[in-house]
Write a structure and sequence with these properties.
alpha/beta, globular, seven-stranded mixed beta sheet, 2 domains, 16 helices, three-stranded antiparallel beta sheet
Length: 396
């Protein structure tokens, strides 16, 4: 444990985070290591030295190189992914491309990220489709329990399944591969929100079987802000329309992917964040990130055990890396969530989200993110602060 603490201290020096803040909220916007951020800035400077050459002559090759590196990391073909600025944009491209008839059903859960919950509500209101949030109560006990509970929401009208790979409010890893397998057999389209997945858990998109998958490189991959991707299975690419119609529409470059050309070129924009993704992959390789992730999971386990002992409330899943990785959400006693979050930051310098979610019997959750720069002391500081503040912010 001392060896790990020393390693995390060394890794912490490679990040740009303020040292006076105990940062336990990597899950919201990520944090970019210094070497990756420097690569990002080098690309920005290079663009500015000769913008016409950079965007006019080198764009295709630069983007292909960046897509190839990412494709190797997530195990898919480079022509099946495009860079987007965040997962919400990627998933909106898909949602706005598909056509729905009145009564068509979009099946999801009540654990989804709020922005995408709004996206599908928007689509349903404008098309007459039905957006169904299948209730998933916690605690869950087995993966099969989840699959059967979720699949009970499928009807003959189900056209799309939308599901998080790792949920935002409850930090649970859902068994999306099995859902995708069943959906393919039933002729149902699968759209997976992987915003928290890439970099936090191993990802093999070819094996996963999703029709559409979008994730953020700027979160757990630690890329620069504004780097994310959309994966579309080859057979589904003809259904995808560009949100921005530009010179890539009706492409004229033979031998180049129509899907990539239509989505990739949107006129003048800063592509430095995309081009720095290979640097993020290299940072993880150089720092043996598989081991870092495993050790971060142990700190998450410590947070889970300590907070559970403090509150006496049951966690949402078994204690297993099948259910959570570097991010864990724990229920809290009834309290004023905004006040608790505010006081944690103002009085204890702890940045951690207090989530309001109706899963199970509890409304308030603390979501703890552990990244390579965190130490066990960070977790212990949070537990101490919660022990002192929860009685003061309790709501009877």
């Amino acid at each position: 444990m001392l060896q790990f603490a020393a390693m995390n201290s060394t890794l912490g020096e490679l990040f740009l985070l303020r040292p006076d803040i105990i940062f336990l909220n990597h899950g919201s916007f990520g944090a970019c290591p210094r070497p990756v951020f420097e690569a990002y800035q080098r690309w920005q400077r290079e663009l500015e030295t000769q913008p016409v050459e950079f965007l006019g002559r080198r764009f295709d090759d630069l983007m292909h190189t960046a897509r190839t590196a990412l494709a190797g990391f997530i195990k898919c073909n480079a022509d099946d992914i495009v860079y987007v600025t965040n997962a919400t944009v990627g998933l909106n491209i898909v949602a706005r491309s598909l056509t729905f008839a009145p009564g068509d059903e979009i099946l999801s859960t009540d654990h989804e990220y709020g922005a995408l919950d709004r996206t599908w509500t928007f689509i349903a209101e404008r098309t007459g489709a039905v957006y169904k949030r299948q209730p998933i109560s916690v605690p869950l006990s087995t993966k099969n329990e989840f699959v059967e509970t979720f699949w009970a929401g499928v009807t003959p009208r189900t056209r799309v399944i939308f599901l998080s790979h790792i949920t935002s409010p409850t930090a649970l890893i859902f068994p999306v591969q099995e859902i995708c397998r069943r959906a393919r057999e039933a002729g149902i389209i699968t759209i997976i929100d992987g915003a928290h997945a890439v970099g936090q858990i191993p990802l093999d998109l070819s094996a996963l079987g999703a029709d559409f998958y979008s994730s953020n490189a700027h979160k757990w991959m630690m890329g620069a802000k504004g780097s994310a991707f959309l994966y579309v299975r080859r057979e589904m690419q003809s259904a995808v329309e560009p949100l921005v119609v530009s010179w890539g529409w009706r492409p004229k470059k033979p031998g180049h992917s129509k899907f990539v050309q239509e989505q990739e070129w949107q006129g003048t924009r800063d592509i430095a964040a995309f081009l720095s993704v290979p640097a993020a992959i290299e940072f993880m390789r150089e720092n043996n990130w598989e081991q870092v992730r495993a050790q971060c999971h142990e700190f998450a386990r410590h947070a889970r055990a300590a907070i559970t002992e403090l509150t006496g409330l049951e966690p949402p899943s078994p204690d297993s890396s099948e259910w959570y990785s570097q991010m864990v959400s724990l229920p809290l006693p009834d309290c004023n969530p905004e006040l608790l979050k505010q006081r944690l930051y103002q009085e204890y310098n702890i940045e951690v989200p207090i989530v309001v979610h109706l899963a199970g019997k509890n409304r308030q959750w603390v979501r703890v993110s552990i990244q390579g720069y965190n130490t066990r002391d960070d977790v212990d500081a949070l537990v101490t602060a919660l022990g002192e503040l929860l009685p003061q912010v309790a709501v009877s």
